[in-house]
Structures are given as structure tokens and as C-alpha cells.
Design goal:
Layout: E1 7-11, E2 14-19, H1 24-29, E3 36-42, H2 46-58, E4 62-68, E5 86-93, H3 95-108, E6 112-116, E7 132-136, H4 137-141, H5 145-156, H6 158-170, H7 188-200, H8 206-220, H9 228-248, H10 260-269, H11 285-307, H12 311-319, H13 325-331, H14 335-348, H15 352-359
Parallel strand pairs: 2-7, 3-4, 3-5, 5-6, 6-7
Antiparallel strand pairs: 1-2
Helix pairs in contact: 5-7, 5-9, 6-11, 8-9, 8-14, 9-11, 14-15
Length: 365
């Protein structure tokens, strides 16, 4: 049974408060005594938002309200129409509300607070971190099963991030230290805190790129997309399996090089917003052939690193998080779709997946 006491900790420069039935006004009074507050909330959380708005108003705050739609419902709203004299931004929700709150807080040059309602994202502390994150245990324990699965999907993708960091250190001579966090199964609040810690060092690893491609494809086809964390779990499992096969193959350099124009056109058709990344070029002697030589020296080390990841235990745990967790994996995404998204992610990856793409082996699928 979880403890009922309030616990304070610091993640980066952000104070994190975890407890039962958190009293918003007393907490906010210590950090922002008076003035106008802009409250931004996810439309799916109207009941929670209305309760907090009532508390803030009864505490003497003047409140301006902005509702935003989640990515999953196809919305891409930003907080707007808020007076310039607002002195604090308060977000209720997860990734969507946080993104809108950052935009508004930066525009007003004020601090902001996050009332986190679900462990679905590893972006909260990226770019413009909140001063305080509030995690109410009772709210977290009642969030949808899919949200918890998304959080664990992100967490279970971290061994892949650690492996790609190892690859960057060994092969690319890039300093990108990484330490994967362990979380006790079933502790949703600790899962949320772990995602905050991950967001401090977040970077677009190959699983993140592939999960965003899977998401954009679902939206393009008119399907109701899964949460990014769910896709990321699936992507990381496939990429790690591919890495094991790829590194163990003695003839990985015998394929014709990939055609980037084909992948670029397909990404554009899928409405995937590609970012500026340094991809591996087959014809650049300072990238592909140099890496190929170094890779031959460290192949055994890389395979040993992959072999130390207990992927099957994570998969079993994730499939049992809720009744349909395993079902959607088999029903919504087929093998051909995954292979296509893996190839497209390779065209955008700066890590081993990008190297594999440049070698032409992903196009051979």
C-alpha cells in the first residue's frame, strides 16, 4: 500500500510535490501570493479543472481559463486571448496542456505550474520547465489504463536509449551519458516522477522518431491513434530486435545504398513533420565508411550490450497492464506497417538505425 504523506523532491530545477488530495491554494500561495492566473487544461479533464478553478477563485486569485484539445483528438490549439497582466500559468493535464502552458508562460515571461494528471509524457521539463509539478496520488490512480501503459512504454524504451547512447559514445565519439531509471511495478506516482527525470535529458532517439511516424500515419488514415508512449514501446521492441539481427549478420555491407528521396516523399505523404537532423550518408567517407570500420571493432561489445537487456520481462509486464494491451498490438499494426515505419525512422535517425538505413538493408525489406 502506498504512503499517504506528502513528499517533496527536486528534479532539475523543478520542485515536485506528491501526495493525496493536494490543496492547491496553500501550495500556490507559497510560490505566487497574489495576482491573475491563467489556467490551461485538457478538455477531457473538465471536472478536475472546474474543481481547481473554484479553489483558486475562493483563494482570492483572478482566473482566466483556456481549454485545449489533446493530440489524440486531433486538436492543435494554443492558449490565446489571455491578458498581458497574468502573472502565473497553471496547467492541468499532461503533454498537451504542458505544451500550451509553456508557450503562454514564455510569451508572458512568467513561471508556470503543472498539475499532472497522467504519466503519459516525457516532455514536461523540456525547453521551459515548470517551477512546480503537483502529482495527486488519487488522480493518478484513477487515470485510464492506456495512460499508465503509455508511461511504462516510455520507461521500457529507455534501455534502447541507453544502448544508442552507448553506440554514440563508442562509435560516434559523442558524449551522451545515460542512466536508465528503475520503477517499482504498480507505483504510478513514481512512474510519473521517473518520466520527469527522463524529460531532463530527453532527445529524439530512434524509438521516438518511429513512434511519431506510427502516430502520424494513424491520423492520416483517419484512425484514432494510440498514445505516443504506447507506440514507443512497440517501436523500441522492434528496433532492439532488428539491432540484434543486424549486428549479428556478416554481410550487412553488401546491399545497395538507400534512396533518401523515396523515404522523404513517403514521410511527406504521411504528414510527418520531419526535423533537421544529421543523417548518415552512404557516400560520405567521413561518416559511413569510417563508422563501418569502427563498428567492426565494437560489434561484439554492442551485441553484449543488447544481450544484457531483458526485453521479454518488460513485454510480459506491459501486456498485462490492462485487458486489451496485448490485443491492440496484434490488431492495429501489422508487420508490413512496422517494417515500413522502421525504414522511414532509419532515414531520420542519427544513430545505429540511421547507419543501417544508409547501408541499404532496411530498404531490402
Amino acid at each position: 500500500m502506498e504512503e499517504s504523506t506528502t513528499r517533496n523532491r527536486t528534479v532539475g530545477q523543478t520542485e515536485v510535490i506528491v501526495g493525496d488530495d493536494l490543496q492547491i491554494v496553500p501550495i500556490l500561495n507559497h510560490r505566487f501570493a497574489e495576482g491573475a492566473v491563467c489556467l490551461i487544461y485538457d478538455r477531457n479533464l473538465t471536472e478536475i479543472a472546474e474543481r481547481i478553478i473554484k479553489d483558486l477563485k475562493s483563494g482570492g486569485y483572478r482566473v482566466f481559463v483556456q481549454a485545449v484539445s489533446s493530440r489524440r483528438s486531433g486538436g492543435n490549439e494554443r492558449a490565446s486571448g489571455v491578458p498581458e497582466y497574468v502573472r502565473h500559468v497553471f496547467a492541468v493535464g499532461a503533454g498537451t496542456a504542458a505544451s500550451a502552458a509553456k508557450q503562454k508562460a514564455k510569451q508572458l515571461d512568467v513561471d508556470w505550474t503543472m498539475y499532472l494528471t497522467a504519466p503519459t509524457t516525457d516532455t514536461i521539463l523540456c525547453d521551459y520547465a515548470p517551477k512546480t509539478v503537483l502529482i495527486d496520488r488519487n488522480v493518478m490512480l484513477n487515470c485510464p489504463f492506456e495512460c499508465v501503459a503509455s508511461g511504462y512504454g516510455i520507461l521500457f524504451s529507455q534501455p534502447l536509449a541507453a544502448f544508442e547512447s552507448f553506440f554514440a559514445n563508442k562509435i560516434l565519439a559523442c558524449e551522451s551519458g545515460f542512466d536508465a531509471r528503475q520503477v517499482k511495478a504498480g507505483d504510478v506516482c513514481e512512474l510519473a516522477v521517473a518520466l520527469l527525470e527522463i524529460s531532463l535529458r530527453k532527445r529524439d532517439d530512434s524509438a521516438q522518431i518511429m513512434s511519431e511516424i506510427l502516430y502520424s500515419r494513424a491520423v492520416k488514415r483517419g484512425k484514432r491513434p494510440r498514445l505516443i508512449g504506447e507506440y514507443k514501446f512497440l517501436a523500441s521492441a522492434m528496433i532492439m530486435s532488428f539491432y540484434s539481427s543486424y549486428l549479428g549478420a556478416p554481410s550487412i555491407d553488401t546491399m545497395p545504398p538507400a534512396c533518401r528521396e523515396v523515404s522523404a516523399d513517403e514521410l511527406k505523404r504521411g504528414e510527418y513533420e520531419s526535423k533537421e537532423r544529421k543523417s548518415v550518408d552512404f557516400f560520405d567517407a567521413n561518416s559511413y565508411f569510417k563508422i563501418s570500420y569502427i563498428l567492426s571493432e565494437y560489434r561484439t561489445d554492442l551485441l553484449d550490450k543488447l544481450g544484457s537487456i531483458d526485453l521479454h520481462t518488460s513485454q510480459r509486464f506491459w501486456r498485462r497492464l490492462y485487458p486489451d494491451a496485448g490485443y491492440w498490438l496484434k490488431s492495429e499494426v501489422n508487420c508490413k506497417e512496422l517494417e515500413s515505419c522502421l525504414t522511414l525512422a532509419g532515414s531520420q535517425s542519427e544513430n545505429l538505425l540511421g547507419f543501417a538505413y544508409a547501408s541499404g538493408i532496411l530498404s531490402a525489406f
